[in-house]
Amino acid sequence: MKHKIYILLILSILFGSSYGQSRQDSKTFVIEGIVYDDLDTPLPGVTVYIRDKISVGTTTNTEGEFSIKVNRNDVLIFSFVGYEQVEYLVTAEKKDLVIKFKETAQALDEVIVTGLGTQRKISSVAAVTSIDVKELQTPASSISNLLGGRVPGVISMQTSGEPGRNISEFWVRGIGTFGANSSALVLIDGLEGDINAIDPSDIESFSVLKDASATAVYGVRGANGVVLVTTKRGQPGKLSVTGRVNYQISSLRRTPNYLRAYDYALLANEARAVRNESPIYTGVELDIIRDGSDPDLYPDVNWQEEILKNTGFRQSYYVSARGGAQVAKYFISLGMSNEAAAYNVDKNSPYAANVGYNTYSFRTNLDLELSPSTTLYFGADGFLSQQNDPGVASTNYIWYAQSNLNPLLLPKMYSNGQYPASGTGSLTSPIVQINYMGRRLNQAFKGKYTLSLNQNLSMITDGLSLRAQGSYDINSYFSEARLLNPPLFQAIGRDKDGKLITVQRVSEGAISYGRSTDQYRKYHFESTLNYERLFSEDHRVSGLVYYYLSDEKRASESTNNLTAIPLRYQGVSSRLTYGFKDTYMVDFNFGYTGSENFQPGRQYGFFPSIALGWVPSGYQFFQRIFPFIDFLKFRGSYGTVGNDRISATRFPYLTMVSMGNGHPWDTSAGFEVIGESRIGADNLEWEKAKKSNLGIEARLFNEKLSLVVDVFNDLRDGIFMQRVQVPDYAGLITKPYSNIGEMSSYGSDGNIAFTHDINKEMNFTVRGNYTFSKNNVKHWEEANPRFPYQEVSGYPYGTIRGYQALGLFKDWDDVNNSPAQFGKVMPGDIKYRDVNGDGVINSNDMTPLSYSTYPLLMYGFGGEFRYKKITLGILFKGTGKTDFFHVGYSSNGIGYVPFFRGVNGNVLTMAKDPSNRWIPKEYAAQNGIDLKYAENPNARFPRLTYGYNENNSQRSDFWKGDSRYLRLQEVTINYNLKNDFLRKIKVASIDFQLIGNNLLLWDKVKLFDPEQAYRNGEVYPIPTTYALQMYINL
Amino acid sequence: MNRVNLYKKASISFVSLLVFGFSFFSCGDFLSIDEYFSDEIKLDSVFANTRYIKSYMWGAANLFPDEGNILQNNYTPGPLATDEAFTSFLSTTHSYFGMSFVLGEVTSSNLRSFNTWGNLYMIIRKCNTIFNRIDEAKDMTTKERFEILGTTRFIRAYAYYNILVDFGPPILLGDEIMDSNEQLSYYDRPRCTYDEAVEYICNELEEASLYLPLTTSLMQFGIPTKGAAYGLIARIRLNHASPLYNGAKLPDRHSAIGNVQRMGPFMCNRSMMKRDGPRPQLPRKE
After folding, report:
1. Which of chain A's residues have a Cβ under 8 Å away from the Cβ of B68?
2. Residue A834: which of A825, A824, A847, A823 has the closest Cα?
């Protein structure tokens, strides 16, 4: 009841203040004049607005002149960045008003957005990367795709190019823990949000917080780095409207090339013959295939061409408005995008309409000034995505089908109009799946609503302010499928008249309907007490106390009494900073967070951190000795951060008991039985990470060259792991969790930029950045392995293990004198090394072969060149050596190794080249293959096998490849058009942009896109896109 | 003056909202889940109640593998583990694991269905838990207490017996419940000798037999009785008397017509009747 009264009170205050402004004087006249800066030159672009009228305002033109309609007693405000605001009370009409600006007393302080507010860039001692928002304005399906190669400190990987799924994974400073959660915290306007749901044109600032000192205020949530996004707010003055239109064409590159039917059949026969098995296709059949004379029984279908659309099309529209008066400022944006499907649909099919991925979003930020010291902020945003798919499974399956169906397996349609099925029905024609099996809809809505109250408490003491904010998130998911089965037939031969005989394999099924729903909600409340003051020009002090609590729940996880308990966090954190003359700085942070995963009494953990900074360029003598160094700062930080997330297990300290019915010793009568279903661990503690960071920031040569380099080290202790070393005879139902894992990660990141003005009309900037991170597992709880190289401890996390390959067996002597391998081995098969010398090749011979498949080093470089109104921008992005395996890791060789799964799987055209495979001499002689290609010890493929070959399918460095790449990631041409004609139709300017993405690629894989190389072409590749984008600024 | 009033109202309402906000979630209990967890059965409430202790005991017995599985999915090699047996179907695909045993298909990385070691120790741990906590139930009558103790002792001895038969001498834990989260050195225990195992198990069975029922009803056929305990003691001692454990070099040879040829000395220093005193008498059936 109480809170209802106060809410009513606030609302009535709002209405009261707005009523106060609706009184209007009836006398209107025009004021005109010129604005000059402190050097008496006319100043263009100055904002002129009436203080209490929303969105009434104008700007000065190139001569500094302005003209505005006002009423008597209005207050005109003139404002421009870098100068003190000027107010003018209107008493009478005036046509020659002269306004002179004075520069603001304090030098312009560049600010960066950091935890819970902004800090002056000059005095920040934390490792924070800020991105100029202009760099994020290129069209991309999601911002996470723009981070790698552009933001130092971020490593990213894009695993699919498919519309609706083409979102990159990214990590801040690599992966530093093997606990459940290694991804960064993304905060949009201070509240957790989804980085993929935000439109880049909404963004005001973008920063990444990397080290312990920067993330400490976020406590446990910030353990893996924090990405801070703030969105645009309203500003007083005339209404400014921006519209954006964007059309993008994408074209697939690096689609694998497969053999057609005749070549496929020849190779299939070879695969059988070299293993002394009978050929699959007889001579007569080979002739039919070559001539294509029986397309029903011996088809020759290029599935990629049939189902894949090589060019895709995406369009998006966006409009935003911002404006306001002193008392109320607003920002509203609306956006929508539509991306067409990636595959060909039959236009006549009723299910083919509307396939594609559509998104709709809105955002509104309202700032209301309740009093000169109190502001109320209301924000709401929503993001709706709809994916319409045809019938069966996901488009992943459709892509999988084109890499798995060989050209001879199924025709598109039989000549009698029936649709095909292969014998067992396990591989269905993707044409049938796309066009005749129904449709699916996946819909997701993410909404967030927040209210925040800011109170300036300068009446108690100067520089004190208080903020309280609450928010409500609601995400809802809905998917439904309407599926039906058309009748499918298999042709088994022809009758004596030559007519096709078909057998029905799949009977017609009536339409079925299925749906699934999920819902997620979150309550969040936080409040901040902030103090900032500059004492006697030299001592800058600031302090911050932050308290938050949150409660979230997901419907699909609520399956029993305990998993349905909402997930709750509560924490207090604080930051104190002191700077002396902007030369010596010290920051002290601490966080005190509580989590439900620990017993009452141990739920809270204390995590302090400290950071120091020194700016030697502030000294007089330094400026004398090194005049070319404008700014130099050394900083270092050391702190602890906690982590409490274990995979899927909540409340691991609880011992759970379950009740049921049992028949011990097989009695007929049952007995009630009770037993523990989980043993709780009662001495669990927070996982602690000790992070240290050293950094240098410098600006040289008159601010032309700027560079930042950071070196970091992260030691994570007490990682939750299951105690698998506890022996079985302790009799535990489940092994408990304990804090025994230990891992360290270290690396470096940095960026450098050089700007130069050639003359007034031309300038250019060149920049580069890199991120490098490596990790090492110091202790991993496992049962003691037999050989030291089998331990997980002591190696990087995710190390991939396999056999060491010595090449291919040369001849039968070689085979007979080597240790026993897998199954029956022939010359031309892969030979492995017996690492432990026991005479047998088995799993004890597996040694670490490479790091995990995400890159350790990521870098980017590029620049901009500006001439008058045209800007040209280029960005390259690349990674260092990254290993992947064609066979034996995540993928299984289908689509790369010929006939890896027998009839499943297409064969790459490069298998046709005899130098790429090991061919026995006898077969080469019998089949007219040049003997110089036979028995090639350096062949890419071993002796062919039709079907699964256990020996050649083991994971070994025979199949290891390097997926490092360098992409010409982006080329942008921007032209800014501004002229009097546009001003006449009230358009301030138009920006035209031509953007190309992923235009050139240098790599070693060549067959597939390197970021997806380990999937051997089974995944939708990352396309090249060309886009035209237009911003209209009103 | 309008502004001042506004200002006052705003600050009052703001501060009150804050206070209210803080009081709404009382900070200390925000993370506690007692209100949900109190409805769950907790391990403590199991031992506060005689009925639940009995259920817990039957839960332990319910973990024993099915003795009826002698040919397929058997927990002990059984009748097929001999050179004279053969099966028509593949031992691995049709679970004739006794056959797998002699064919060499049972390896340290794949124990087929023989890996009962951990399971039997879970049973032993549960029995030890009952012994340690049986006094917590305040509603237990003396008769019930002895019944529970008797059956639990039998269960524990039977578990040790199964370990002895399949794996050799077990690690004897006594009444100890091992801690779940200790350093490795805590778990470094030796295995006992065959003699110690036999003595321990037979002593336990004798104590259990004092309180086991004489007979059970038809519906509960299979529940251990006095006779079962004595029978098991007899079997264990008989196996113990075997030359395998008595230092003989060669096994006896038995010809087809029943001649026994002893092949070397063996010390018959163990027997079923090791103790002095009267042999335990099975009461005759009425």
Report:
1. 666
2. A847
